[in-house]
Design goal:
The chain has four helices and six strands. By secondary structure, the chain is of the alpha+beta class. The chain has two domains: 109 residues, no CATH class; 38 residues, no CATH class. The chain is elongated.
């Protein structure tokens, strides 16, 4: 897969490692975004946190959650911030979590905006833009190809 499932003190899912590879993003850059984000907020899924960091003109986004398999409760002092869990790191403005000191963080997914040239996201974006600009018969033909050959746009 190219990446390590345990890197930088965090667990990386196979999905996250696959996305790193597909998107041409290094695990080190993703780790940097997770370890030192410019901003972070509650994720769309329950218990997840979204971390973002700018690298030049690109923005790396990481979705992570704290491992619940150890039976650790979420941080009560952080509910006012809308975070379901916290990382025992006061530099982030989060109250420390004495009951979560041994919990491990799991990186669920990651991406970079805008997509790197040649990455799968870049190809999908270009194909979608082409699809949007196409007329009725072009879209009709593309839909037939998608259904016959299983391709997206």
């Amino acid at each position: 897969m190219g990446g390590q499932t345990y890197y930088g003190g965090y667990i990386w899912t196979n999905h996250a490692l696959q996305r790193l590879k597909e998107r041409g993003l290094s695990q080190e850059m993703a780790w940097e975004a997770f370890e030192h984000p410019d901003r972070f907020f509650k994720g769309k899924q329950s218990g997840t946190v979204e971390y973002q960091k700018k690298f030049g003109s690109s923005k790396v986004t990481i979705i992570a959650r704290q491992n619940e398999s150890r039976g650790l409760a979420s941080c009560r002092n952080n509910e006012s911030r809308g975070l379901a869990s916290c990382r025992n790191n006061e530099s982030r403005g989060l109250a420390s979590c004495r009951n979560n000191e041994k919990a491990e963080w799991i990186v669920l997914s990651c991406w970079i905006d805008p997509p790197l040239p040649g990455s799968i996201d870049d190809k999908k974006k270009k194909a979608y833009q082409k699809y949007i600009k196409t007329g009725f018969w072009g879209k009709f033909w593309i839909e037939i190809k998608c259904q016959l050959f299983g391709q997206e746009y």
